[in-house]
Specification:
Helix content is about 80%, strand content about 0%. By secondary structure, it is mainly alpha-helical.
Length: about 130
């Protein structure tokens, strides 16, 4: 390992755990503001924040699992790094896209974010299938 280089998967694990805490906070924020949003007919805002909370946690768990497993699979280091970056970008994107829909984020961008996370999962799945451990 070179100086300044992070162990493969460690960054995914660390950011994943941080993201879980962040999305729990988003869920608490959503729960505290439900009355206000319902009274002011802001049901769509409530729904999008709840989706951000739920999808953010799912993306974070994917990153934690990715970080735990990616160092143990039999893949090229460059492919591992690409998968790691895609998993992180997908996690952040899948959380932020839901509130972004309220301000008009185009559908192709939302689809691209989902594709990034899917490709990361497929890379890890391929590595798992080709590994002995």
């Amino acid at each position: 390992m070179e100086i300044g280089e992070i162990e493969t998967g460690k960054f995914n694990r660390c950011i994943g755990w941080f993201w879980i805490a962040l999305t729990i906070f988003i869920g608490m924020y959503s729960a505290m503001n439900i009355e206000h949003w319902i009274q002011n007919d802001m049901r769509m805002t409530k729904t999008m924040v709840r989706h951000a909370h739920t999808m953010g946690i799912i993306g974070a768990v994917i990153n934690v699992v990715y970080g735990i497993r990616i160092g143990k699979v039999n893949l090229d280091d460059n492919l591992k790094k690409v998968g790691s970056i895609l998993a992180l970008l997908g996690m952040v994107g899948i959380t932020l896209i839901w509130p972004g829909i309220l301000i008009g984020i185009p559908s192709p961008i939302a689809a691209l974010i989902g594709i990034m996370l899917i490709v990361a999962v497929l890379i890890l799945g391929y590595g798992e299938m080709s590994s002995q451990n």
